[in-house]
């Protein structure tokens, strides 16, 4: 299993390529793109950020390793998929905002790859709607730190499972249907 690059390495690589996106936004967009059946492309930032003028990450760079890790994690049968948000030591509000940014970027990448009406299960439709609600949320809605840490952990786990469910509907299910025909 390919490990995800560190948040700071992704940030530096994003800045070096002038992508104008945070690590959470890049990871969310890439996950959305791949979960909806978008192609695994070395030049993924151009597709995920909908800007054909963006350069492709260098082979072996943090952004290239990010793509490889996400592809491996989405395909992993042990559900080893992880979210890239903010540094674990970052303040709660920063990590919460990163999660909501991640959800917005996921929806963007998912929409770019899936088109208007992806074939989703009832659970997939519900998961996508829940992700859309999270994408509209704000860290201002949280009150006390202890409860918020627990709530953030629960939301992260929900998002992780929702992504795997959507990937299952759009990619794994499509592969399975192809094998049956």
Description:
It is a single chain. This protein has 181 residues and is mainly alpha-helical. It has one domain: YgfB uncharacterised protein family PF03695 (Four Helix Bundle (Hemerythrin (Met), subunit A)). It is 64% helix and 0% strand. The chain has helices at 7-16, 23-35, 44-48, 62-75, 92-114, 122-135, 145-180.
Summarize the structure.
The protein has 181 residues and is an all-alpha fold. It has 7 helices and no strands. It has one domain: Four Helix Bundle (Hemerythrin (Met), subunit A), CATH 1.20.120.
CATH architecture descriptor? Up-down Bundle
Helix content: 55-70%
- Our measurement of the CA-to-CA distance between the termini, rounded to an integer number of angstroms, reads 31 Å
Rough outline:
globular
Strand segment count = 0
Helix-strand pattern: HHHHHHH
User: Which consecutive residue ranges, at least 5 long each, have pLDDT under 50?
Assistant: 177-181
Q: How many helical elements?
A: 7
CATH topology: Four Helix Bundle (Hemerythrin (Met), subunit A)
Assigned CATH superfamily? YgfB uncharacterised protein family PF03695
Largest sheet: none
Evaluate the radius of gyration: 16 Å
Give the helix/strand class. Answer: mainly alpha
Overall number of domains: 1
Mean pLDDT equals 89
CATH class placement: Mainly Alpha
Q: DSSP strand (E) fraction?
A: under 5%
């Amino acid at each position: 299993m390919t490990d995800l690059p560190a948040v700071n390495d992704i940030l530096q690589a994003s800045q070096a390529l002038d992508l104008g996106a945070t690590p959470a936004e890049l990871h969310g967009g890439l996950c959305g793109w791949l979960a909806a059946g978008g192609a695994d492309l070395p030049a993924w930032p151009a597709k995920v950020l909908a800007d054909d003028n963006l350069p492709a990450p260098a082979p072996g760079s943090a952004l290239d390793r990010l793509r490889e890790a996400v592809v491996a994690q989405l395909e992993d049968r042990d559900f080893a998929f992880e979210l890239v948000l903010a540094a674990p030591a970052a303040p709660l509000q920063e990590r919460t905002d990163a999660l909501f940014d991640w959800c917005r970027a996921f929806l963007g990448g998912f929409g770019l790859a899936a088109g208007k009406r992806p074939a989703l299960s009832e659970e997939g439709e519900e998961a996508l709607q829940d992700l859309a609600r999270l994408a509209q949320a704000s860290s201002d809605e949280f009150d006390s730190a202890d409860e918020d840490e627990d709530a953030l952990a629960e939301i992260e786990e929900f998002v992780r499972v929702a992504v795997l469910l959507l990937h299952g509907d759009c990619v794994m299910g499509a592969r399975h249907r192809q094998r049956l025909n």
